[in-house]
Each structure stands twice: as C-alpha cells, then as structure tokens.
Automatic annotation (TrEMBL):
The lineage of its organism: Bacteria, Bacillati, Actinomycetota, Actinomycetes, Kitasatosporales. InterPro entries: Homeodomain-like_sf, HTH-type_TetR-like_transc_reg, HTH_TetR, Tet_transcr_reg_TetR-rel_C_sf, TetR_SbtR-like_C. This is Helix-turn-helix domain-containing protein. Coiled coil: none annotated. It comes from the Bacteria. Residues 1-21 are annotated as: Disordered. PROSITE patterns: HTH_TETR_2 (PS50977). Residues 20-79 form the HTH tetR-type domain.
C-alpha cells in the first residue's frame, strides 16, 4: 500500500503510478477484445474484461477513436519490447522470430480496423503508420539478422518485406472461418528456414 502523507493523502507520484497501471490494464483488455471481436466490440465487453466500469473507460478515452489509437500505440510498444525479450529467452533465433510474428499478427487485427475508426483523420492515421514502421521494422530486422547469423533462415529477406507479406496475409481474414492467416504466416516462415542437414 502506498505510504500516505501526514495529512493522510497518497503522494502524487503514487497516484500517477496507479493511474498509469490502470491505463495499461485497460489497454491490455481492449487489445484482447479487439483481437477477438474487432474494433467495433462493445465498450461494456472491454470494461468487463478489465474489471472496471464503463465510466472509467470513458474518463481515460472519451471516444472510440481515442481508445483505438491508444491500443494501437500500446500494441506497437508491446511488439517492439517483445523482440529483444524473445531473443533472450527462446531456444533459437528462428523460434523467437516465429513467436514475434504471432504477436505481430494479433496486432494487425487491430491495425486493420483502425482505418475505419479514424476515417475522418487521414493525417492522424499516416502519423501512426510512420510511428509503426519506425518502431517495428528495426525490431523485425534484429530478429531476422539473428536467425540468419545462426544459419537458421535464408539471409536475403528484408524486415519491411516480411512485415508487408505478413500484413497482406492478414488482410484476407474478414471473419471467413475457412481462412486462417496464422496458419499461412506459419507456412511463410517455414519457407524462410534453412533445411536441416541429416
């Protein structure tokens, strides 16, 4: 429990830390709901997942577009931070790349719905897309370089090229139960792997 001042008030720093944690919890819950149900999912579903009232969400994010943009940035940062962490903990660089690609696919579900949520603000969407590239292309490049250096994948694939390919495979999802972008992304990554010598 945060220490209180002589007047019984919680210090401002603790309040800010609590507010930041609450915001991160909301964004994580919203991201999970958006991945499962799309960006048009009811706010009450997000509130239930986060364990808060709907008023709490509206205090942090007055409009759906505010929430979608915040989730987008939250997921970009999660993907960016996951790359080095996966390289450190996975058994191989190619495994780290595969696990990162799975996170990236989940992120793309939200990204594809963002255009509709921001259709009246194309400049805002363009700025977010630039931010997405600036943060994630170097991370994907680091994963590819590590796997190529370990001779686990072919060395001639660029990060932007791979991310664009994964993105194109995810566009076709559109709630078609016969289409599974994750499976096809797996096939794409299998095509990068070096054959194992017997």
């Amino acid at each position: 429990m945060p220490a209180s001042s002589p007047s019984g008030e919680v210090p401002a720093r603790s309040k800010r830390a609590d507010a930041q944690r609450n915001r991160q919890t909301l964004l994580s819950a919203a991201a999970e709901v958006f991945v499962a149900s799309g960006v048009d999912a009811p706010i009450r579903e997000i509130a239930a997942r986060a364990g808060v009232g709907m008023g709490t969400i509206y205090r942090h994010f007055p409009t759906r577009a505010d929430l979608v943009v915040a989730v987008y940035r939250h997921q970009v940062e999660a993907c960016a931070e996951a790359g080095p962490a996966l390289l450190a903990e996975a058994d191989s660089a190619s495994e780290a790349l595969g696990r990162w690609a799975a996170l990236f696919v989940d992120f793309l579900v939200t990204k594809h719905g963002l255009a509709n949520a921001l259709r009246s603000d194309s400049g805002g969407f363009d700025a977010l897309h630039a931010y997405f590239l600036d943060r994630l292309v170097p991370v994907c490049g680091e994963l590819l370089d590590a796997a190529a250096a370990a001779d686990e994948i072919r060395p001639d694939v660029e990060a932007y090229e791979l991310m664009r390919g994964i993105g194109n495979l995810c566009v076709g999802d559109d709630d078609d139960p016969r289409y599974d972008p994750r499976r096809l992304v797996g096939v794409l990554l299998d095509g990068l792997r070096r054959p194992q010598s017997s």
